């Protein structure tokens, strides 16, 4: 019989407590309830850790997309372009996260805000760049 809490083999434990984690285990009759194997418990832990990691990464990339999108004046096209990429990555990481849902939701919102800011900054930068070239040509500037 395995401990339902930590997955440790209980062997012939009869005091009702797991020697590994100390939690009570005698409430569950061993003949009627199938016990999870250590492999399935480890798989569940890995899945939960993976969910947490992806949710936190979603939040991180969402915030970075806002920061890079707002940094457009400093990096000209580089900041908003990177912000656009980070926003998309944040949205991908947020998709379908059941556990740690709050991190994923905030990451999704930040990713969308970062995408919008990055697109606005890119469009405004392109318009102002084009107007600057138009003005220079009107003033008689010859590029070649």
Mean pLDDT: 79
Low-pLDDT residue intervals, each spanning 5 or more residues: none
Please estimate the helix content: 55-70%
Largest sheet: none
Which overall shape is indicated by the principal axes computed on the Cα atoms?
Answer: rod-shaped
Q: Tally the helices: what do you get? A: 4
Whole-number radius of gyration?
A: 27 Å
What is the beta-strand fraction? under 5%
- Helix and strand composition category: mainly alpha
Integer tally of domains: 2
- DSSP summary, beta strand count: 0
What is the secondary structure topology, with strand pairs?
Layout: H1 38-70, H2 72-75, H3 78-94, H4 101-138
Helix pairs in contact: 1-3, 1-4, 3-4
Q: What features would you describe in this structure?
A:
It contains four helices and no strands. By secondary structure, it is an all-alpha fold. The chain has two domains: 36 residues, no CATH class; 90 residues, no CATH class. The longest helix has 38 residues. It is rod-shaped and about 95 Å long. The termini are far apart. The mean pLDDT is 79.
């Amino acid at each position: 019989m395995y401990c339902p809490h930590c997955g440790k083999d209980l062997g012939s434990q009869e005091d009702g407590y797991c020697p590994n984690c100390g939690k009570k285990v005698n409430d569950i009759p061993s003949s009627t309830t199938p016990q999870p194997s250590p492999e399935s418990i480890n798989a569940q832990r890995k899945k939960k850790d993976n969910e947490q990691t992806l949710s936190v990464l979603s939040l991180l990339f969402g915030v970075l997309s806002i920061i890079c999108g707002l940094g457009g004046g400093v990096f000209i096209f580089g900041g908003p372009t990177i912000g656009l990429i980070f926003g998309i990555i944040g949205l991908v990481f947020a998709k379908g996260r059941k556990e740690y849902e709050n991190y994923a939701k905030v990451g999704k919102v930040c990713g969308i805000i970062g995408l919008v800011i990055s697109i606005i900054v890119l469009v405004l930068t392109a318009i102002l760049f084009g107007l600057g070239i138009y003005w220079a040509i009107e003033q008689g500037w010859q590029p070649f």
